[in-house]
Amino acid sequence: MKLSSFAYFARFGLKTILLRQEKPILGTIILTDKCNLHCRHCSVNNITAVLYPYGQISEEMARLYAMGVRILFFCGGETFLWQDGEKTLRDLVVEAREMGFLIVNVVTNGTFPLDLPEADLILLSLDGDQEKHNAIRGDTYDLILENVRRATADNICFYMAINRINREDVRHVCLLARDTPNVRAVSFNFHTPYPDTRSLALTPEEKAACCGAIAQAMEEGAPVFNLKSAFPYLIHNRFPTPCRQCVVMENGRLSTCGRCIDVPGLCQECGYFFVAEYTLLFQGNWRVVFEMLRTYLKYI
């Protein structure tokens, strides 16, 4: 991370903590809900299968930037499916950088070639070992790892949603991230139980076991892009929601924190590690503050 970017985020954090301001710093733009997969834990794919037009997305980027957002995520659906004429995902990433966003990340299922060195991180969904991942996402595990090996930059971060199917595979994904070229880190979420996927939700005891496995893997050198200091809050959902410093833009509609905010009761069962980390950070939890500083400086 550039020194100027670090200084910007440090000022923002101090103002938010000391003045209790609720301005956003992290924004996500949904490029499409179209996806080439139908994952068992996903409730938001192929509802419309519309690729939102370039002009609209460009306006959404400008709107988020004007609000103060400086960390931008492009999400789907599957982001690498997005195209409008000659415009591709790379054009969006480059434009976001030119607009002034300090960190630009992309989320993908990894089934397309990973040629996007302009992104700070490519968060790539990997949901366990070959057997468990394929049970969730279809026969894609080998293709994804081959795309990782062929990637044109070392900006890949595995991104695992832990659920009842794959909860025993946390250690496998941690050590795979440690030992696979082009992979910089691994990031986790617990499954957030939309009504149609409630059977995949973890109990607090299962969450605690997963956090223990992650912590042990970190001791063994696994590059985990999450904060151990937030684990106790995640296990029992003892963190405030929604995160006012995060926003999502989809088809011109702005939501605080995430798309799931409109589902009654779902915020109280949030499994997103970053939501816990950011809300605790901006409440002034100093253990989280210092650990986040170390983690972000190391992996971004």
Describe the fold and architecture:
The protein is α/β, with parallel strands linked by helices. It has a single domain, classed as pyruvate-formate lyase- activating enzyme. It has helices spanning 3-19, 54-67, 89-99, 130-137, 141-149, 170-179, 204-219, 231-235, 273-282, 286-299, and strands at 26-30, 71-75, 83-84, 87-88, 103-108, 121-125, 156-162, 183-190, 246-250, 253-256. It has an 8-stranded mixed sheet with strand order 8-7-6-5-2-1-9-10, sandwiched between helices. A two-stranded antiparallel ribbon has the order 3-4.
List the helices and strands and how they pair.
Layout (H helix, E strand, L loop, with lengths): L2 H17 L6 E5 L23 H14 L3 E5 L7 E2 L2 E2 H11 L3 E6 L12 E5 L4 H8 L3 H9 L6 E7 L7 H10 L3 E8 L13 H16 L11 H5 L10 E5 L2 E4 L16 H10 L3 H14 L1
Parallel strand pairs: 1-2, 1-9, 2-5, 5-6, 6-7, 7-8
Antiparallel strand pairs: 3-4, 9-10
| E-strand count | 10
Spatial separation of the terminal alpha carbons:
6 Å
Number of helices: 10
The CATH class, by name, is Alpha Beta
Q: Roughly what is the average pLDDT, rounded to an integer?
A: 95
> Do you know the CATH architecture?
Alpha-Beta Horseshoe
Structural class: alpha/beta
